[in-house]
Write a structure and sequence with these properties.
The complex is a heterodimer of chains A (107) and B (124).
Chain A: E1 4-7, E2 10-13, E3 19-25, E4 33-38, E5 45-49, E6 53-54, E7 62-67, E8 70-75, E9 84-90, E10 97-98, E11 102-106
Parallel strand pairs in A: 2-11
Antiparallel strand pairs in A: 1-3, 3-8, 4-5, 4-9, 5-6, 7-8, 9-10, 9-11
Chain B: E1 3-6, E2 10-12, E3 18-25, E4 32-39, E5 45-51, E6 58-60, E7 68-73, E8 78-83, E9 92-102, E10 111-114, E11 118-122
Parallel strand pairs in B: 2-11
Antiparallel strand pairs in B: 1-3, 3-8, 4-5, 4-9, 5-6, 7-8, 9-10, 9-11
The chains are: A mainly beta (107), B mainly beta (124).
Chain lengths: 107, 124
């Protein structure tokens, strides 16, 4: 199985900050990577697909980049409603696997 | 707006089975794969497999083969996930999620939207 390693596992930031989360795959997955946002007590929501494509309706402050084994998820200007846990997901090989999540809160 | 509504919470004893339903609305149910993903308390996401609601074809992650069954009832636009021989470490929220790709092609593995989740507690 492909292992997905996110870092950091948690972080605190201030409103307006630029926030970056990284995700590393245990093998080359090309750009077969998605990012999800999960707010407390809610189901995940797809934000980014194919590593860098913004899902319809998702604010433009969210972005993704990378290919191969190293990927980055960025929030350009953190908003209070962005408090959530963020997961990367690879779909290059079955089984589908997710990173362990990055918990983001407001400082 | 496309919606998936799941059945309510369940409490089961070790060794029992559980069947969770996922009712789809406001789209053509047979046109999109349904996936199942679970999340143990305070933990990450674990993909279980998918069902093609049109053909009934399924694919399961190796971890769950032999214990999981995925079915559907097209007359009521509902998918089901049944997990048997339950253990305490099966305690989790179980989600259904629609694949964004059509069943005319292989799954895209882009999951959106998701159901609200069903908590399954396994305890003696």
């Amino acid at each position: 199985d492909i292992q997905m390693t996110q870092s950091p596992s948690s972080l605190s930031a201030s409103v307006g900050d630029r926030v970056t989360i990284t995700c590393q795959a245990s093998q080359d997955i090309s750009d077969f990577l998605n990012w999800y946002q999960q707010k407390p007590g809610k189901a995940p929501k797809l934000l980014i697909y194919d590593a860098s494509n913004l899902e319809t309706g998702v604010p433009s402050r969210f972005s993704g980049s990378g290919s191969g084994t190293d990927f980055t998820f960025t929030i350009s200007r953190l908003q209070p409603e962005d408090i959530a846990t963020y997961y990367c997901q690879q779909y290059d090989n079955l089984p589908i696997t997710f990173g362990q999540g990055t918990r983001l809160d407001i400082k | 707006q496309v919606q998936l509504v799941q059945s309510g919470a369940e409490v089961k004893k070790p060794g029992a089975s559980v069947k969770v339903s996922c009712k789809a609305s406001l789209y053509t149910f047979t046109a999109y794969y349904i996936h199942w993903v679970r999340q143990a308390p305070g933990q990450g996401l674990e993909w279980m497999g998918w069902i093609n609601p049109n053909s009934g074809g399924t694919y399961f992650a190796q971890t769950f083969r032999g214990r999981v069954t995925m079915t559907r009832d097209t007359s009521i636009n509902t998918a089901y996930m049944q997990l048997s021989s339950l253990r305490s470490d099966d305690t989790a929220v179980y989600y259904c999620a629609r694949d964004k790709g059509s069943v005319a092609n292989p799954p895209s593995f882009w999951f959106d939207p998701w159901g609200q989740g069903t908590l399954v507690t396994v305890s003696s």
